[in-house]
Automatic annotation (TrEMBL):
<dbReference type="InterPro" id="IPR001610">
    <property type="entry name" value="PAC"/>
</dbReference>
<feature type="transmembrane region" description="Helical">
    <location>
        <begin position="108"/>
        <end position="130"/>
    </location>
</feature>
<feature type="domain" description="Histidine kinase">
    <location>
        <begin position="519"/>
        <end position="725"/>
    </location>
</feature>
<dbReference type="InterPro" id="IPR004358">
    <property type="entry name" value="Sig_transdc_His_kin-like_C"/>
</dbReference>
<keyword id="KW-0902">Two-component regulatory system</keyword>
<feature type="domain" description="PAS">
    <location>
        <begin position="268"/>
        <end position="311"/>
    </location>
</feature>
<feature type="domain" description="PAC">
    <location>
        <begin position="326"/>
        <end position="378"/>
    </location>
</feature>
<feature type="domain" description="PAC">
    <location>
        <begin position="454"/>
        <end position="506"/>
    </location>
</feature>
<dbReference type="InterPro" id="IPR005330">
    <property type="entry name" value="MHYT_dom"/>
</dbReference>
<dbReference type="InterPro" id="IPR003594">
    <property type="entry name" value="HATPase_dom"/>
</dbReference>
<dbReference type="InterPro" id="IPR003661">
    <property type="entry name" value="HisK_dim/P_dom"/>
</dbReference>
<dbReference type="Pfam" id="PF03707">
    <property type="entry name" value="MHYT"/>
</dbReference>
<feature type="transmembrane region" description="Helical">
    <location>
        <begin position="212"/>
        <end position="232"/>
    </location>
</feature>
<keyword id="KW-0418">Kinase</keyword>
<dbReference type="GO" id="GO:0016020">
    <property type="term" value="C:membrane"/>
</dbReference>
<dbReference type="InterPro" id="IPR000014">
    <property type="entry name" value="PAS"/>
</dbReference>
<feature type="transmembrane region" description="Helical">
    <location>
        <begin position="12"/>
        <end position="31"/>
    </location>
</feature>
Length: 726
């Protein structure tokens, strides 16, 4: 048993170390490409693993060869091939944990341990392939393993923890790591060989020693094999680098194009996870009036206009903080104090844990649009206010060019008593009261048809048959050809004003009659008294019947004139009304009884209906009798061919209604509204003062008179007086 000692060939060992360095560098280069490339990762990993595994095997194989070439006389080639595969496998397992998204200390420890096992495996199997007996020096063996493990760990740490080094120093990481790996492999081989004791048979050693030429060829073959592998690996790396470079250039060009497009159209800003601005484009500076140096390092509160609430921004940050895209409109304040609006999209960029590490905000200036929207809102509000004001004060209707109603407001429906559905689609003939002539409306349509505004007063008829007056302005809306395409009619209710004017007109007439009565009554009454006295005196001595008849006619006419003078005197100087509480039922019965005989002569059936015997009112009995006599006599005279005359009393809450209804000739509408005016009468021989005085007496009793009439159907006088309640 002899310890193995042979001749050492340093030049072969130097070649082995050089080949191992080249293989290590190539392997690390491929592994680096895996981390920075998205393509061919599997091919790069296999290439790097083969290169590193063969580099470890070369040092061990040539290192044993340089020590004693006679040991290779019985070299077992299958075991050598097995050692290569096992070394490559452990090398692959060593580097596999180092390609995750995040490299931890446990990954470095595992990789270093597996690569150390790869070196041990190749060394031990390589020795056993020489068919020799081995004994190990355990302490030296363990020390060599620890030394390799430490060197591998350090090499992996500086290579795969590049964040610990400045960017400008990272170019030296691969060469330094390759040197450390190569030194660790070479030193490990030397220490392992020193810790190994070879026991051989001298006869076996001396029997067949291969010549030096064989070993030279063997070394050259292995060298060529490794060089070919490195060349192939280098070619793949160059191709990958060229592709990556092309892709990088294309990506850079695409990024530049996108950046240019964004700079031309959008406002771009990038912030970190805390909202601090890290980048802005030129358009951001242009619209905000801040230069880039004033914005970088600030947050977006520098642009806060105060328009939005805290909850608005709280919701914004909550959305993007959860990794969701936020979209909305924001009002910002520029450096010069001006406000501007931006349509904003904020996109969060997420890290491996799904947490935002930066935000990209892309904005579009929408200030002009917001100003237009604001102007539109103001215009709409102004239109709404005008419409509201019109609805509150005026009657509004739209018609098309043919006069068909297309829209009405609530006040139109209120005064006309028609619903909106009943009005839309109709023309204004539905409201025609018959008061105005055809020429009136012909002139109206001629005016607005020429595109001119028409103004005037119109009496309309509501759905319930009542009349109302409206002060009307019709405005035509013209198209591009200057032709009306619709009309707007704005009306104001002047019914009360017209009634007041009518009352004033009547009062003017009454005043004129009063002045006439005051000036004439006195002058007429004195001669009438003389004429009546002398006529009665002549009657005393007259025996001729014919002459007596003439004198009676004269007295009747004098009495008639005197009655007219009395009416004049009532108008000129009304007596003070002295009202007393009376039962009006006997008063009416008394008047009806007085006129029953006259009614029978005219073939008129006079009837009185009253459900109550006592109806107390405050009245002047004599003057009230005068009214009843006047109205009932008028009713009898309105039926020259006979008929029915009904006198009725009805209690309505605190009022008594006395109706005097005949079946006579009736009164036309155009005359009905003039009843009660001085000197207006429907009789051939009347003077109109009777009705006027009657109306005035009822007014002095705080009552009202309503007249209803229809030609050939009769007339009803409704007297409404306050009744005394029990």
């Amino acid at each position: 048993m002899n310890a193995f000692l042979g001749d050492f060939h340093p030049y072969l060992f130097i070649i082995a170390v050089g080949l191992t360095f080249m293989a290590s560098y190539t392997a690390l280069d491929m592994f680096s490409l895996i981390r920075s490339s998205d393509q061919n990762k599997r091919l790069l990993f296999i290439g790097g693993t083969l290169s590193m595994g063969i580099g470890v095997w070369v040092t061990n194989f040539i290192g044993l060869l340089t020590t004693n070439s006679t040991l290779f006389a019985n070299y077992h080639i299958p075991l050598t091939i097995l050692s290569i595969f096992i070394g490559v496998a452990f090398t692959g397992m060593a580097f596999f944990p180092l390609f995750g998204k995040e490299i931890k200390m446990s990954h470095l420890l595992a990789g270093s341990s597996l690569l150390t096992i790869a070196v041990f495996s190749i060394h031990i199997i390589g020795i056993y392939s020489m068919n020799v007996t081995i004994k190990y020096h355990f302490l030296l063996f363990a020390f060599s393993g620890l030394l390799m493990f430490a060197a591998f760990f350090f090499s992996f740490w500086i290579l795969f923890s590049v964040r610990n080094f400045p960017t400008e120093n990272q170019v030296w990481l691969k060469p330094v790591s390759s040197i450390i790996l190569t030194a660790a492999i070479a030193e490990g081989h030397i220490l392992l060989k020193k810790s190994t004791l070879f026991i051989t048979d001298n006869n076996m050693v001396n029997s067949s020693a291969p010549d030096s030429l064989f070993f030279t060829y063997l070394v050259l073959f292995v060298s060529v094999l490794i060089m070919a592998g490195l060349i192939v690996s280098s070619t793949l790396i160059s191709k990958q680098l060229a592709t990556s470079d092309f892709n990088l250039k294309e990506s850079i060009k695409e990024v530049k194009d996108i950046t240019f497009a964004l700079d031309q159209s959008s406002i771009v800003a990038i912030t970190n996870s805390k909202g601090i601005i890290t980048f802005v484009n030129d358009k951001f500076s242009e619209i905000s009036k801040y230069c880039r140096d004033e914005l970088i390092g600030q947050d977006h509160r520098i642009l806060n206009s105060g328009y939005h609430s805290k909850d608005f921004f709280k919701d914004l940050w909550k959305t993007i903080g959860q990794g969701n895209v936020w979209h909305g409109e924001i009002c910002n304040r520029a450096k010069d104090g001006g406000l501007y609006w931006v349509d904003t999209t904020i996109v969060p960029f997420l890290n491996s844990h799904g947490k935002p590490y930066q935000y990209v905000a892309i904005r579009t200036d929408i200030s002009d649009r917001k100003r237009a929207e604001g102007h539109l809102k103001e215009t709409m509000k102004e239109n709404t206010d005008i419409k509201f004001a019109l609805d509150q004060s005026s009657i509004v209707a739209f018609t098309d060019s043919r006069g068909k109603i297309t829209s009405v407001n609530d006040k139109f429906c209120e005064i006309s008593k028609y619903s909106r559905e009943e009005i839309i689609g109709k023309d204004h003939n539905i409201l025609n009261s018959g008061y105005h002539s055809r020429d009136f409306f012909k002139n109206l349509w001629k005016t607005i048809g020429e595109g001119k505004v028409w103004k005037g007063e119109i009496r309309n008829k509501a759905k319930d048959g009542t009349f109302y007056w409206v002060d009307t302005t019709i405005v035509p809306f013209l198209n591009e050809q200057g032709k009306p395409y619709q009309y707007l009619a704005i009306r104001n209710d002047i019914t009360e004003r017209k009634k007041t004017e009518e009352v004033l007109h009547r009062q003017d007439k009454l005043a004129a009659v009063g002045q006439l009565a005051a000036g004439v009554a006195h002058e007429i009454r004195n001669p009438l008294t003389s004429m009546k006295g002398y006529t009665e005196f002549l009657q005393l001595d007259e025996q001729d019947p014919e002459r007596l008849e003439f004198l009676n006619i004269i007295l009747d006419e004098i009495e008639r004139v005197n009655t007219i003078v009395e009416d004049f005197m009532v108008l000129a100087k009304p007596k003070a009304v002295e009202l007393e509480e009376k039962n009006v039922v006997p008063v009416i019965k008394n008047v009806v009884s007085l006129l029953e005989f006259e009614a029978r002569k005219k073939n008129v059936r006079l009837m009185f209906n009253c459900n109550q015997e006592i109806i107390q009112i405050e009245c002047d009995e004599n003057r009230l009798k005068q009214v009843f006599l006047n109205f009932i006599k008028n009713g009898i005279e309105a039926m020259p061919n006979g008929g029915d005359l009904h006198v009725k009393t009805v209690i309505h809450e605190n009022n008594v209604q006395i109706s005097i209804q005949d079946t006579g000739v009736g009164i036309p509408k155009e005359k009905l509204k003039k009843l009660g005016e001085p000197f207006f009468t429907t009789k051939k021989n009347g003077n109109g003062l009777g009705l006027m005085v009657s109306f005035k007496i009822i007014e002095s009793h705080n009552g009202k008179v309503f007249v209803e009439s229809e030609p050939n159907k009769g007339t009803t006088f409704n007297i409404l007086l306050p009744a005394k309640t029990a």
